[in-house]
Specification:
CATH superfamily of the largest domain: Putative Large Serine Recombinase, Chain B, Domain 2
Strand content: 15-25%
CATH class of the largest domain: Alpha Beta
Number of domains: 4
Helix content: 40-55%
Number of strands: 20
Oligomer: single chain
Structural class: alpha/beta
Distance between the termini: 57 Å
Largest sheet: 6 strands, mixed
Number of helices: 17
Shape: globular
Length: 575
């Protein structure tokens, strides 16, 4: 009798992978061949609702591949019921990691795994040959790595560029081994060197480029369809970082030189690139057309060398215990710790996204003194401790009522938003495929394709970050429900110590929202919302003798700090 198979409900993931090394084996491993094989297998075995996940040009020893990670993301969301690959080597070429996915990850999530050519089907039970095949696949990767390293060494030692062209250059359409000047990006590189010669610093140059709406190298390459490594963390395609400016100013390649072996990796398993010392690099001068003449380049290096960063003095460099706890209530970015340049005793925080300081988007600075926030937090913790000491039952009931009501409401909201963003993320992916097909068939011009692809890529990255954030917040809600007792223990610990330490703050507080000051020119009020670990923001009944903390920030100017429950419009806000 045939064994009963579970009903296939959900996506059948057809995963294809091809690396540059696999391409040596010819058409048998090509993406198109894999797709045909997997589609035919799914059809013959009644596996419906198929979806391709493809990684073209990615090594099997690294599992941080976009197609694979997208498949894992869909599995974690519960969308995938079956994963089908051509053979185990398509899943990966690391014995330990492939074993984890086939033996632990897929079974834990009730996902059926099939490797066609290796006769592996998790519904048929364990396959004794699979571990040996994984070991052989890893040996293959190791052997290929040795051959590739030898090939790179030969090519690099002969003067052939073995890295991708830097910003300002592109590969020649007639000879991919030769770099030519990019007519769009090269003028920007010249502008950067010109401004450096004029004495402008990295920040001034970055601000100038942003104001002129010059696209950063990362987004420029995306718009041109050039695939480059690195994370696209900044949603603003025109916000240049100082590190990017500095990286351009020190690149000798702009003089027309080729520099090979600037980095290396320790092994085929560890893909982390490490800097090679100068004596181990190979330098070939005047190989391609220069963008910057050598005299200009050397002069800029002297200017950079003379501009040394000042090491912070011990009293200025001390990290505040509130670092990484304070956030802007408007844009939700972190507040950065600063020391007053004239009075070193004054430490303060301000929004890291403030438009005038960092070319960000936040309209207000959200300035707050470090000593003031410390006193406010002390006062609020003492109030919590006092309420717990004299009204323990009421405090426990308040926590239970607050967490239960707020958590149910917020969890529903978060799950709804998460579902909406997940659906939109898939829609964006489908739209990208559609415009790609329209461009390939001539229905969409190259220019329009570039514009739309950039737009969808930006939206996809924003959705990915939001989905990750909402998943973390949902996980925190579950943690809050389980750890209310830990919060009370932490308050009792504070009652015994009556002092603030970095460890104590992190045991009690999740984060603190700081609002912009409001009021007259001499007497301001500033709202502060403390979100505690496990329970979020809570409102403790105010005692009759309670007074808000007031600080003299400078001569003739006072700031009164108010908890957000003093403002009815803020009630109901949750962590």
């Amino acid at each position: 009798m045939q064994s009963k198979k579970k009903t296939n409900i959900g996506i059948t993931a057809l995963y294809c992978r091809l690396s540059r090394d696999d391409g040596m084996e010819g058409e048998s491993n090509s993406i198109s061949t894999q797709k045909k094989m997997l589609k035919q297998f799914a059809k013959e075995h009644s596996l419906g609702n198929t979806r391709y996940y493809v990684d073209d040009g990615y090594t099997g020893t690294n599992f941080n591949r976009p197609g694979f990670q997208k498949m894992i993301e869909d599995i974690d969301l519960g969308y995938v019921s079956t994963v089908v690959v051509k053979d185990l080597s398509r899943l990966g070429r690391r014995y330990d990691t492939v074993g984890y996915y086939t033996d632990t990850y897929f079974p834990d999530r009730d996902v059926r795994f099939i490797a066609i050519n290796d006769n592996v089907d998790s519904d048929e039970g364990e396959n004794e040959i699979a571990p040996f095949k994984n070991i052989i696949n890893e040996w293959y990767a190791k052997d290929i790595s040795k051959k590739c390293r030898s090939s790179y060494r030969i090519r690099g030692s002969s003067g052939e560029p073995i890295s991708l062209p830097p910003y300002g250059y592109m590969k020649s359409p007639d000879n991919p081994k030769k770099w030519i000047v990019d007519p769009e990006a090269a003028p920007v590189v010249k502008d950067i060197f010109r401004m450096a010669l004029e004495g402008k610093g990295d920040e001034a140059i970055a601000r100038n480029l942003q104001e002129r709406q010059i696209m950063t190298p990362t987004y420029y390459w995306i718009a041109k369809g050039v695939r480059k490594g690195g994370k696209k963390t900044c949603p603003n395609p025109y916000k240049w970082n100082c590190t990017t400016i500095d990286g351009i100013l020190v690149r000798q390649e702009y003089c027309g030189d080729v520099i090979n072996f600037k980095t290396y990796s320790k092994s085929y398993k560890n893909k982390t690139r490490r800097a090679n010392p100068p004596e181990k690099r190979a330098v070939f001068k005047n190989v391609h057309e220069p963008i910057i003449d050598r005299d200009t380049f050397e002069l800029v290096q002297k200017l950079i060398g003379n501009t040394k960063r000042r090491a912070p003095k011990p009293e200025n460099g001390e990290k505040s215990i509130f670092t990484d706890l304070l956030f802007c209530a408007d844009c939700h970015k972190k507040l950065w710790h600063h020391v007053n340049t004239r009075n070193k005793d004054i430490h303060y925080f301000s929004c890291s996204n403030y438009v005038k300081d960092t070319r960000g988007t936040c309209k207000s600075r959200h300035y707050i003194r470090a000593d003031a926030i410390e006193e406010v937090v002390k006062q609020e913790l003492r109030r919590l401790a006092k309420y717990l000491e004299y009204h323990e039952d009421e405090f426990a009931a308040l926590l239970a009522e607050k967490t239960n009501a707020d958590m149910i409401s917020e969890q529903k909201y978060l799950e709804s938003e998460l579902n909406r963003m997940t659906v939109r993320s898939q829609t964006v992916a489908d739209l990208f495929v559609k415009i790609y097909e329209d461009n390939a068939t001539g229905k969409l011009t190259d220019e329009m394709f570039m514009q739309l692809s950039q737009k969808y890529e930006l939206e996809r990255m924003e959705l990915k970050d939001k989905i990750f954030e909402y998943k973390e917040r949902i996980a925190k809600l579950h943690e809050m429900e389980q750890n209310k007792d830990d919060f009370i223990k932490a308050i009792r610990k504070f009652m015994e110590m009556q002092t603030l330490t970095a460890l104590m703050l992190r045991e009690l507080i999740d984060h603190i929202d700081v609002y912009e000051k409001e009021g007259s020119s001499k007497h301001y009020t500033q709202r502060i919302a403390i979100y505690y670990r496990f329970v979020g923001y809570i409102e403790i009944p105010t005692e009759p003798d309670y007074e808000n903390y007031t600080a003299d920030t400078r001569q003739g100017v006072k700031v009164e700090y108010l908890p957000t429950d003093m403002f009815p419009s803020q009630r109901g806000k949750t962590a």
